[in-house]
Every structure is written in C-alpha cells, then in structure tokens.
C-alpha cells in the first residue's frame, strides 16, 4: 500500500495545500495530512480548528485523513509505516529548503526507506502561503480567495 504523509502546520490550510493534495490523491492509496505540533510556535487557529478545516475540505476524498503529531516527521512516518513524504514547492527557495530537509530525513533513516515526493504548486496558486493568509486575516483583508470554503469563517 502506497501511503504518503503531507506534514505541516496548516495554519490555516490554503488553496495551495489543496492543490497539492488533490493532485496527489491518484498517486497514493492513502494520504495522511499530518499537523505537526511545535510548542515554540504561536498559532492563529487551534489544533482542533485546523483539523476540522482539513476534514471538511477533504471530506469527499475517502483516501485522505488528518492526524497530528509531535517530534520529527521522519519518526511519525516510521510509526505509521509510511514510505513517502509529500511536499509542495512554490518557488526555488522552497526547493532549496525542502531539499535540505529531504536529505536530512534520508540520513536519519539508515535504510533510506522514506522518499520525499515533490509536487510543484499550480502557477495560479504559487503565491499563496499560510503566513500571507494569516497576515491578511489579521488586517481584515479578503483572505477568502486563498483558502478552501471550510476556512472561510
């Protein structure tokens, strides 16, 4: 069974995230959208809100589920017996950052059994990031054009 973990904070989930998952659905038997908990980070939305946003957004996709974890993504993948990490790339800076993480993950798994799969975000969504959405929300701007319906609160 081909299972991928799509890790992130998803604070909030955006149309860019949606784009990556929607296009990855046919590639995997199951995709776990895994919300990482970072005690050092201040979130705009609670963990439960973020989980609910994701559940509602992907309710029509039976092979997509949501979970949360603490610690290293690679350890979470091992605990779930997952062989793929799914990541989206918006620009060259994302590639360089994600490449370093992928190479580190390979070094941490001596067996090299966990592969990182990169998908390029569709061009019309490559400018969207959760941090930009949070900034727009904090100033009362029109963030709704950048997020799935479930986030439009």
From TrEMBL:
The keyword Zinc does not apply. GO terms for molecular function: ATP binding; pantetheine-phosphate adenylyltransferase activity. ATP binds at residues 9-10, 17, 88-90, 98, 125-131. It is found in: Cytoplasm. Its cofactor is Mg(2+). It catalyses: (R)-4'-phosphopantetheine + ATP + H(+) = 3'-dephospho-CoA + diphosphate. One of its GO terms (cellular component) is cytoplasm. Pathway: Cofactor biosynthesis; coenzyme A biosynthesis; CoA from (R)-pantothenate: step 4/5. Its main location: cytoplasm. Its EC number is 2.7.7.3. One of its GO terms (biological process) is coenzyme A biosynthetic process. Residues 5-135 form the Cytidyltransferase-like domain. InterPro entries: Cyt_trans-like (IPR004821), PPAT (IPR001980), Rossmann-like_a/b/a_fold (IPR014729). Substrate binds at residues 9, 41, 73, 87. Keywords: ATP-binding, Coenzyme A biosynthesis, Cytoplasm, Magnesium, Nucleotide-binding, Nucleotidyltransferase, Transferase. It is an enzyme of class 2 (transferase). It holds the Pfam family CTP_transf_like. Reversibly transfers an adenylyl group from ATP to 4'-phosphopantetheine, yielding dephospho-CoA (dPCoA) and pyrophosphate. NCBIfam families: coaD_prev_kdtB, cyt_tran_rel. Homohexamer. HAMAP family: PPAT_bact. Belongs to the bacterial CoaD family. PANTHER family: PHOSPHOPANTETHEINE ADENYLYLTRANSFERASE (PTHR21342). This is Phosphopantetheine adenylyltransferase.
């Amino acid at each position: 069974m081909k299972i991928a973990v799509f890790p992130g904070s998803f604070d909030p989930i955006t149309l860019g995230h949606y784009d990556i998952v929607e296009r990855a659905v046919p590639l995997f038997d199951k995709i776990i959208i895994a919300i990482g908990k970072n005690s050092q980070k201040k979130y705009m939305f609670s963990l439960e809100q973020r989980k609910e946003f994701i559940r509602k957004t992907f309710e029509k996709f039976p092979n997509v589920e949501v979970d949360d974890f603490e610690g290293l993504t690679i350890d979470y993948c091992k605990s779930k017996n997952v062989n793929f990490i799914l990541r989206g790339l918006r620009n060259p800076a994302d590639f360089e950052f994600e490449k370093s993480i992928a190479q580190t993950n390979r070094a941490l798994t001596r067996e090299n059994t966990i592969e990182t799969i990169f998908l390029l975000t569709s061009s019309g969504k490559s400018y969207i990031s959760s941090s930009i959405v949070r900034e727009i929300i904090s100033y009362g701007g029109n963030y709704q054009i950048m997020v799935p319906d479930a986030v439009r609160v």
